[in-house]
Amino acid sequence: MLHKLRSLLTALGIIIGIAAVVSMASYGEGAKQAALADIAKLGSKNIIVRSVKPPESNETTTGGRQFAPKFGLLWRDMRRIEETVGPIDKLVPLKKVGAQVLQGKYRSPAAVFGTTPVLMDVASLRLARGRYLTQADMEQQHKMPVAVIGAEVADRLFPLVDPLESTIKVDKQSFQVVGVLNRIGLSGGAGSALVGRDLNFDVHIPMPVAKARFGDTLFQRSSGSMQASQVEISEIYIQAPNEESVVSVSEQVKRVLEKEHAKEQDTSLTVPLELLIQKEKTQQMFNLMMILIAGLSLLVGGIGIMNIMLASVTERTREIGIRRALGATRHHIVMQFLVETTVLSGIGGIIGVGVGLGGVGVLTVVHRIWPAMEQPHVTMWSIGVSFIVATSVGIVFGLYPAMKASQQDPIVALRHD
After folding, report:
1. What are phi and psi of 377, to 5 degrees?
2. Which residues pair with 61 in a beta bridge?
3. The pTM is what?
4. pLDDT value at position 62?
5. What pLDDT, in 10s, does the model give residues 255-271?
6. Are 43 and 345 in contact (CB under 8 A)?
């Protein structure tokens, strides 16, 4: 209390170290939760198989129109998976049939897929309004077919009106909008990278309509030319009954696909559960490195405490001699100096936690202004561990000065000027 500035500077290393641990751990936890949430939206029990364009399938161009190479998943692949792979809870195909939708004077890029009603449960889709595809939609091909559109498609095609019951066109084919999907926050995140597109631009139509009206050839315009490809199935979502069987099912699916697609390399397999586990391991390594870096700051703070306390022992030699002469034991002297260092480091830890939480608040404000930055999430373990470490630093680095003080000869200490 007599040397407030010196005490504050003594605890400064502790304050900086604790603040770094709390703020960095909060930001790291926020980034981890955002990434894990993105991956989890794909379903921890799901296995996603996709058709991918093989590297050697370079089309030859004639008169601005390119020949359509055939690659990717086949309907017989899906039948083999159904017949040979188990246990499987649900299996859902997706067939891409268009890349742009129109509504009056408005147009929007989109990924138009034929699929089945089961996709809503398997992909954990949520509706903003309207309904999803039903089994009746699969069977009523003579009526105007229906479509469920993504949130971004709805915003672009219907900026001023409700899209429900309105009509959109996909390659001159008309569809009645019966539902709008809830906005999915995967754009730019881990989930978006996994699916290879922004799911808010998805449009879902009944699979029988997709097969009957569009066939297997997909045309895409690019730079004045027409690119075409033949793909029977674009994606297959496979849902295992539980997380324990996901790895086994994925290995079986991989073996089935290797029999026909190993040479072509025109399929890919994604297992969100494996990605979740890998992401958690990566985050654990990140947390360890972060703690080690912050620990260096705490080490510097501990050395500062030891340095100041050694100077304090020299300054207070006469006080130590008086206390020993009045009956204080060496244990009393040790405890006196240990209490001082522990209080210094403890107060530094409390201030450091406050500064760290203030840093989290600043990061939260920055996140609101710049959404691309992850939302920090305060972790109680970082606060608890930081405070315990701060107190431990005071004890460890205060022990030597305290022992040195207690070992002084009372007579010599009383004569010290």
Report:
1. -135, 115
2. 66
3. 0.64
4. 44
5. 999 888 878 788 888 88
6. no
